[in-house]
Amino acid sequence: MTRLIPHHELAIGSDQIIDPDQAVYDLRQAFNYPYDLQGFDDFLNAFGINHSNYMRAANQQKLIDAVSRGDWVMVRPKAVKDSGGASWNSFNPKPEPAPAQHLVEEHAFTVPKPVEPGFHIVQQAMSLDALERALYEKSLSDALRKEFRSLNRHLGERVKPGQMVIFSDSRHYLCRREEAQMMAAAQKVDEALKDLTEEEAAFLVENHELIEPFLEISAGSLGVASFMVGQHLESLKNGLKSLEALHQEQFRKYGHLHSQEFLAQRKPLMAKLDASLGPFIRKGTGLADHPKLKRALGLSTRRTLHHWSKAGAPTQLPGYATNIAGVARAAKFMQTGGYIGIGLATGASGMRISEVCRSGTEAECQKVKFIEGAKLAGNVGGSAIAGVTAAPITMEYCANLALKRRPIGGVLCVLVLSGAAASLGGNVGSKTAELTTEIIYETVVHD
Amino acid sequence: MIDIKLLYASVVCFLFATGFLNFAVMLYVRFFKLQEIEAYFQDCFLIASGQRTAGHGFYGRNVRLGNVRALLRDNSSIRPQLDAQARDDVRRFPKRLRLLIELPPRVNAGVLLGLIAVWSWGNYEGFY
Question: B28: number of CA atoms within 13 Å, CB side?
């Protein structure tokens, strides 16, 4: 097995060092199978990166740069040199070296090592039978179906988008810790999804990565921020439609797509799309695929399967299930265009008013009505003002960022910045409106 | 002497009133002036395709106005890539409509900065 080590720890023969180009290629492979590369954890730690965020484009670039610069080198294990039965060996007999691991695995009469378990995230609502048919390339035997269902007891007769489907290699004879952890994560996910309709759950699966940055925002600001998301998605949809229309129109007109007019008209559309497409290419959960398990179990190669360590069970590193409850709540807000977010903030204000009115005096009740109403108006108004102001600025900034460093720029940049602006505006608006109403109320009542 | 708290309250009221009025203007432009604005861009594919694909809803109108704003902005990343005919349209675009498009976002930014300033002032005075 190859190993990654820092350059200053290098104390081996040069024939063991893998050249930087090959090392970069191997590292890219290792992003999908981190457990196959020794020293990967130390490598991440050296850059302050961990397993939950190393798939981010910026972090991957940092890691790749370190290997291509030669700060970290990839080394292959020392080869056991065979003397070919030279005469001196007869005086100094050595034990026979162990056969190379890859030869053992590929030997027809040896059983290969079982593969680590993994999970799949359901993409669309369907029956359990349909899911099984979609997941496996061949029809399931009774034994395999029994095993599949015993591992996935949390799935009902109809599965919802976002639910976790657990897979394990049947060559593991015992129930393992990893499976138990995935089952715990799956239960957590089911708990979060139970209040969502199938459409809301599908929205969650599609936009999981986009929604996560919004989790820290208050309900009122979330309502406004989700309008920004809606607007951005609409803009993206229109950009793609325009591009399609341009291709059709130009092809009808000229019969080809090389005209100067076509290129000139396509440029601004492409510039707009560049600003927003980046992360959409790998939208969804942002978790790496686990193809080894797919091969081992004969699962369809079109389905994405994730390594068990990305499940995010309660005792595990952050993963899919870690923020699922928040993401599910946010997806519900965003699916309804932000009205629920604003409605939730209104509900919270209403509850505070009724609580004071029930226990306090008439004057206190009247005062809290004014103040809570103004606070809500300030929160929504402040986030709207900030959101509208930030949108064109962030678009401009993110477009530049996307053009310079494609993988980072785009949707997340726009959404995080406008979300932060909406949150700041909401807080400022709520505070200033609250104090102002209090001052006016006191002045009017005392006069 | 003017009570400092009353001054604070009146500034906040002014800012919020300006903000809400500004929103009304923005809605007016999107719903009643957009067609007139777009009529000035006869030869621009970006505008024409926006009209065809974005629709007449709130988001759609916002996207269409955003396209116009991107064309009018001096330092936009889109502008240098415009074809010559669209550049003529930008040059011929009337000032009063340009004002209707460009002023509201600036007023908005002013209101936001004002709110942040007032909030900082309140913190400084120990009102919160």
Answer: 10
Which residues 410-439 of A are in CB contact (within 8 Å) with B? Answer: 424-425, 428-429, 431-433, 435-436, 439
Task: Answer with the one of A75, A99, A117 that is the final residue of a domain.
Answer: A75
Nearest partner of B110 among B14, B10, B15, B28, judged by Cα: B15
Interface predicted TM-score (ipTM) of this complex, two decimals: 0.81
Q: Give me the pLDDT at residue A29, please.
A: 74
Token look-up 């040199």 returns A81
Instruction: Report the domain count for chain A.
Output: 2
Domain limits at A263? 219-279+337-446
Q: How many domains are contained in chain B?
A: 1
Interface check A259 vs B, CB under 8 A:
no
- Are A428 and B16 inside 8 Å of each other by CB? no
CB distance B127–A435 less than 8 Å?
yes
Any idea of the CA torsion for A150, A153, A157, A160, to the nearest 10 degrees? -130
Residues in B closer than 8 angstroms to A392, CB to CB, are 66, 69, 105
Model pTM?
0.47
SS3 A51: coil
> How many CB atoms are closer than 10 A to CB A430?
25
CB contact under 8 A, B49 and A241: yes
- Residue with token string 């900030």: A386
Contact B116 A436 (CB under 8 A): no
Per residue of chain A (447 residues), give pLDDT as tens: 678 888 877 765 666 778 887 788 788 777 767 777 788 888 888 888 877 777 777 788 888 888 888 888 888 776 555 544 444 444 454 555 555 554 444 444 455 566 777 888 887 788 888 888 888 767 777 878 888 888 888 888 888 888 888 887 766 655 667 777 788 888 878 887 777 777 777 766 766 655 555 554 555 555 555 665 666 666 666 776 777 777 777 777 887 777 777 777 777 776 666 555 444 433 444 444 555 555 555 555 555 666 666 665 555 555 555 555 555 555 555 545 455 556 656 767 777 787 788 777 888 888 888 888 898 889 888 888 888 887 767 666 665 655 555 444 455 566 667 677 777 888 899 889 999 998 888 888 766
Task: Kindly report the nearest CA distance between residue A407 and chain B, in angstroms.
Answer: 18
> Cβ separation of B52 and A432 shorter than 8 Å?
no
What is the count of residue pairs from A and B with beta carbons less than 8 Å apart? 118
Residue A330 near residue A221 (C-beta atoms within 8 A): no
What H or E segment, with its residue span, contains residue A261? Answer: helix A260-277
Look at residues A75, A103, A118 and tell me which one is the last residue of a structural domain: A75
Q: Residue B86 belongs to what domain range?
A: 4-125
Surface of B (32-51) touching A: CB under 8 A: 45-46, 49-50
User: What distances in angstroms separate CA A93 from CA A81, A82, A86, A99, one per listed residue?
Assistant: 14, 12, 11, 18
Best interface-test mutation with B: which of A221, A234, A238 has the largest number of B CBs within 10 A?
A: A238
Per the CB < 8 A criterion, the answer to whether A425 and A292 are in contact is no
| Interface residue B24 vs chain A (CB under 8 A) | no
